[in-house]
Each structure stands twice: as C-alpha cells, then as structure tokens.
Amino acid sequence: MAVVEPKTQSVKSFKGLHLYHSGISNCAMRVRITLEEKGLEWTSHHLDLVNGEHLTEEYFGINPNGVVPTLVHDGVVIIESQDIIDYLDQTYSTPPLRPANSAAESVMLDWMARSSEIHVKAVKTYIYDRKMRHAMKKSDAENERYRELQSNKELLDFHKKSSQNAFSAAELEQAEQILNDSFAEADEILAGANWLAGDQFSLADIAWIPLQFTLEQLANYEYSRFPNVLAWVNRIKSRPSFQNGVLKWWPMPLQTAPAQKVG
User: Fold this and answer.
1) For position 132, what pLDDT does the model report?
2) How high is the pLDDT of residue 135?
3) Could you tell me if residue 40 is inside a domain?
4) What pLDDT, on the 0 to 100 scale, is given for residue 167?
5) Which of 4, 22, 56, 233 has its CB 3.0 to 4.6 Å from that of 259, i.e. a possible disulfide?
6) How far apart, in whole angstroms, are the C-alpha atoms of residue 247 and residue 237?
7) What is the mean pLDDT of the chain?
8) Residue 129 near residue 221 (C-beta atoms within 8 A)
C-alpha cells in the first residue's frame, strides 16, 4: 500500500476520511465510486486541475507526485488510486467489492494492475493527442515551476512531451493499440459475464469504468465495435455510485455517449 509521510504536517491531524480529488480525474473517480458503494462519509478537498490548484508546495507536501487522488484516513496519507480503493475495500468490508473466489480475485487484481500500467502511456497520451494537444501548452515559467516540484520520472517525461507537442507517431499509435487490445479483451470476457472478474461487481469494474468514461467524454474513443463493453457501461451507469461518484462531479457538458445506443 502506498502510504507516504507528508511534509505538509497539518493533514496528520485529520480525523475520518478526507479525499483530495478532482471532478475530471479518472483516478479520483475510482475512489469516489468506492466510497459511494461502501456508503462512507468523507470530507472533500476538491482541486481544479485545469487551473493548476494541485501545483503547489503544500499539495506536493501531501502527495509527492502532485496528482489526485490522495486519501487521508485519520492522519494516514495513502496515494495511488488502486491502493486507495483496495485499502477501502479491506478496511470497510461491507459490501465486499472483491470476489470470494481466489481465481476471480486474481483476475480482478490483474485488471486493476493493467489500468495503472496503461494510465500514462495509453490513456493520458491518447486523450492528449485527441483533445488536449493545444490546451496543455505551458509557458516557460510554468514548465520550470513544474520541474521544480515534480520528481516522478514518468510524469516529468509526459509533461515535457505534452508541453512541447513532442510525442512521436509511434507513441501515439502504441497508445491507441493498447486501448484497442484492452477493450477487445474486455469485450470477449463480457460476452459471457456481466462483470470483468467473477459474477459480481468488483474493484476491477471500478478501475476501468472511469477510463471508459473519460476516453468517451474527452477523446471520442469509439466503442461501437465493443457491444459487450457498452452493455457493461450501461449496467454501471445505472448504479447510484456512478451517478454520485462520477456524474455529480463532472465539470463539463456530457457528450452523447455511444453506450446509449445499445439495445
């Protein structure tokens, strides 16, 4: 579990569950969905990523990567969305969000791990290419400030390339291929099941539905070739946890969703 010792000491006095998050962050969506599924009370610390509210010494003193989400539970700081949702499920066991069957749990953990592995090199890169290419240009002063705060090599590399429009054609093609392969595999699984891992809604589904949603909303990723994924999307969108954990916080007008065409 990714527990960190904060430099911003004030958070160590927090009682209960506190979440640093953003409405637009797919990683933060995972945590909000999990909190809603568990019926837990939590204190919101919302950061506007577009306006750089996370790019401060204070926040980097809480999360050394300067990203959301960050969970603070009774003064203990946990980063990385997959670790946070796993922590919440194991700390608050009702209702369970993992299969009781060990084989199905292994599948769940694999899907969770994959969602982390592809986040920067596929999801962020694809969205950048399709939507954010011009919006992510920064001034020299902004770039220098980010380099002063950030130490994560993967994030530094992404920021450099995105701010300079420096992704190669091969990197952009790879990002799309990773997404295509992942959703094709999910579509095959969902042809014979309602959920990605076993016979119940789990952390695997929570890990992937925000990726589907943000790719749909921000990058117009085409899902019509994956009908079983679209049926899965509709099942999840009907859950109160999706309404309250995703749509309630989404800061933009909703795009027409391909998922609504299933029938």
Assistant:
1) 65
2) 55
3) yes
4) 86
5) 233
6) 9
7) 92
8) no
Task: Name the residue with tokens 């749990």.
Answer: 105
Owner of token pair 């992937």: 208
Amino acid at residue number 238: S
CA atoms within 13 A on the CB side of 203: 34
CATH number for the domain that contains residue 65:
3.40.30.10
| Torsion, CA 248, CA 253, CA 259, CA 263, rounded to 10 | 100
Whole-angstrom distance, CA of residue 123 vs CA of residue 57: 27
CB 83 within 8 A of CB 2: yes
What's the rounded Cα separation, in Å, for the pair 245 and 85? Answer: 13
CB-based contact 78:90 (threshold 8 Å):
no
Determine which of 66-70, 153-157, 197-201 has the lowest per-residue pLDDT on average. Answer: 153-157
pLDDT of residue 148: 80
> Rounded to 5 degrees, what are φ and ψ at 44?
-90, 135
Residue 139: inside a domain: no
Q: Is residue 112 in a domain? A: no
Give the range of the structural domain holding residue 23, as residue numbers without chain letter.
Answer: 3-91
Phi, psi of 201 (to 5 degrees): -60, 130
For 112, the token pair is 């969770």
Query: Mean pLDDT throughout 235-250?
Result: 97
